[in-house]
Amino acid sequence: RKEFVDLYVNYVFNESIRKPFEDFMQGFLRGCPARKWKIFLPAELQIVLQGHTKFDWHLLEKNVIYRQYKKLDQTIRNFWTVFHELPEEKKKMFLAYLSGSDRIPCYGLEYFTFSIADPQAENPDEIYPFVNTCNHILFLPR
Questions:
Q1: CATH assignment of 57-139, given 3.30.1330.60, 3.30.2410.10, 3.80.30.20, 1.20.120.1460?
Q2: pTM to 2 decimals?
Q3: Residues assigned a catalytic role
Q4: Mean of the per-residue pLDDT values for the chain?
Q5: Smallest Cα–Cα separation from 57: which of 89, 83, 79?
Q6: Spatial separation of the C-alpha atoms in residues 48 and 38, rounded to whole Å
């Protein structure tokens, strides 16, 4: 039985995926030569490729740049009050809305910044918040 289980596990995890994995590896190494990846430990490489998955939301708040707003404006205080009450999954959805990804780039949250700007609409009650994902700007009507 042990020999059967060993052979079956080897087949499922190695033999059955050998050709698709070799094809993937060939394509991956064409765009990203292996010698450049050797400088990373496995955990570091995962962060480079996927980004950070752990967040300090208060640090994110600290790194915001305000345009046409001050940190103590009522709109900003209301925004952060609501934001911090959101469940973790909704906060990640906001991050994806803001930046196009629900993860922080590999350089880390302490360097990730975004802006909150007033779109300066004549009637702010008639427009919704919107973002510029390329520049990480949230346009938040008053």
A1: 3.30.2410.10
A2: 0.66
A3: 134
A4: 86
A5: 83
A6: 13
